[in-house]
Amino acid sequence: MLRGGCLPGKNKHTYQIQFIVTMETPRRIAISGASGFIGSHLSRFLTEKGYEVVPLSRQHFQPAAFRQLTEIVAGCEGVINLAGAPIIKRWSKSYKKELISSRVQPTRALTEAISQVAEKPSVFVSASAVGYYPARGCFDEHNSRKGDSFLSEVCEQWEKEALRASGVVRTVITRFGIVLATDGGAFGKLALPARIGVSAWFSPGDQYLCWIALTDLMRAMEFVTDTADIEGVVNFVAPQLLTNKQFCQFVGAHYRARVPFKIPGSLLKLAMGEAAVSLMEGQCVRPARLTEQGFSFGIPDLQHFLCTLGT
């Protein structure tokens, strides 16, 4: 039986990460999407670690601002690309176009800027998502195959633009799972039913839900930025594999939810339209390359993450 709560002898402070500034000379990192949920946390994390973070806004990707963008890129040791409109939202035809353009256009501008500057950054890190993979089968970076969903197509176009920089600078594609944080983001929405006493999961329930704690994502981002022999695709997911139902049962147990409930696919489709597929289908993905390179997850399983929460 699945049980929630903290492990014996542990409390919610056990897994908090302490950051120590060790660098003497600040290293400049440009970040697109720096005002978003992940980007704002990553900017603060890197600043606390001693980096100088240069945020890139939408205005920097306008044609008229290309010269300014190249000047920024030329002065940075690394560029991290997180730009993109939110996935979990009802997809109209126009919004589907925005999901692609909000990723492809900034990425194209960044790769063009990198290719043109004489003083190039040492690394370009561009986000993607585990939605690249098919919904059936289990995959890692050594066993990679594109799915046939709309999200797979979005990821493919996004990554294709980023890889234009691969012949110029070291390029890393980071495929994110759902990012869990204690102060907002996806977890607050996933945990809402449990907080009112309902342990609810999305139909059918046996689809995988890949996730990573925000604290580990930030540490992994610094890790791939600093590790010179890492390039290409890197999966940013926790090593623990859970189905959607298992995930929600752990969360329900943590909040002592008593009422089990499977949210029907018909209800999801009514509420979200085509976007419901992002909840009803999931990917089984392993973080092979992070593990092989010696990265240590601070929060390797959901039980540890739940221990960082209040009740």
**Multimeric status of the protein:** single chain
How many helices does DSSP assign? 11
Give the radius of gyration.
20 Å
Largest sheet: 6 strands, parallel
Helix-strand pattern: EHEHEHEEHEEEHEEHEHEHHEHH
- The helix content, as a percent range, equals 25-40%
Structural class by secondary-structure content: alpha/beta
Which regions contain 5 or more consecutive residues with pLDDT less than 50? 8-23
Summarize the structure.
Helices cover 37% and strands 18% of the residues.
Tell me about this structure.
This protein has 311 residues and is an alpha/beta fold. The protein is built from 11 helices and 13 strands. The chain has helices at 37-48, 66-74, 93-116, 150-162, 186-195, 214-226, 244-254, 265-272, 277-280, 288-292, 302-307, and strands spanning 28-32, 52-56, 78-81, 123-129, 138-139, 170-176, 178-181, 184-185, 198-202, 211-213, 232-236, 259-263, 284-285. The strands form 4 sheets. The chain has a 6-stranded parallel sheet, sandwiched between helices. Strand 3, helix 3 (93-116) and strand 4 form a beta-alpha-beta unit. Helix 2 packs across helix 3, helix 3 (93-116) runs parallel beside helix 4 and helix 5 (186-195) crosses helix 7. The longest helix is centred in the middle third of the chain and has 24 residues, at 93-116. The radius of gyration is 20 Å and the shape is globular. Residues 8-23 have low confidence and may be disordered.
